[in-house]
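Re: NAP structure - here you go.
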Amino acid sequence: MKKILSGVNIAVLGGDDRDLVLIEELLSAGAALAVAGFPQLKPRERLRVMATVADAIMSADVVILPLPGTNDAGVIRAIYAPQELVFTEEIAKKIPSTVPILIGVAKPFLKQLAAKYNLRLIETAEMDELAIYNAIPSAEGAIQLAMQEMPITIHFSQSFVLGFGRVGQTLARTLKALGAETTVVARSAAQLARAHEMSCRTVHFADLANYLGEADLIFNTVPSLVLDAEVLELVRPKAVIIDLASTPGGTDFPAAERLGIKAILAPGLPGKVAPVTAGRILGKVYPQLIVKTLREIGIKG
Ligand code: NAP
């Protein structure tokens, strides 16, 4: 039987345990893989294990970089690679502009290379189809951290969720299910209406100062400085802040420390707390995304 990725050559460059799961899922979907950065893998049917990025990308129809991508110098996050895997300018020159390059988030360095060599860079972390699934391990990881840090149960705690997008919604729903007194803080009337529909208490950001002093637990998902020094003055010293927003988060961490409030920036939770689930999510989303992209550029029928 023809599988969804039959006949598609994919280079997987580095990554972590999520990508090990993704590799198996891509093989199950029929793809032929050349992987670099996974010395523990043994070659088998449709799986070639390469030592270098240059070898892996040769004749690839699609290139996959890990969700965290590269550092500012192009070093690919590859936790099992015996030596650094680097996405260099030489590599960029070798990838045809028809080849989609999937990556979670691309650093400016890679975006500049993509612009210079007309590379088809596709950033996936912010796509709904990935971000909504990833909200599940993110929310569970945040609650796990909260449980470790708090001397009280989640049940009946006064839990505040700042921001009510993909992560905020899943977090609020999970907190509610655990019996937390859940308050959602958002600025959009539609999001506040949805939070109300889910039986959460709702507070507009403009009114945050009137309520924040009640919180035992504050989860921030807003990638802007919403918990600044002035707002933090209102937080009880015994409260715990778990900040999920992308680095640098939405908390003035030095101010929190001065005030004796425990505030934790918690990036990359899916890969840390549930790498297998996070890999399965990639395995569910990427094959469809690859087929859609190859169809758009007229490569797959
Ligand atoms: P999202 O769906 O875009 O939701 C963001 C929320 O923040 C929305 O409610 C948005 O409201 C609100 N917001 C944005 N700017 C605001 C501002 N200046 N003032 C008040 N509210 C504001 O994003 P998401 O997928 O939930 O992700 C949230 C953050 O968590 C991102 O930074 C993401 O990178 C990060 N993240 C972290 C992890 C982790 O493991 N730590 C995992 C997944 C995602 P509007 O709709 O009104 O703009």
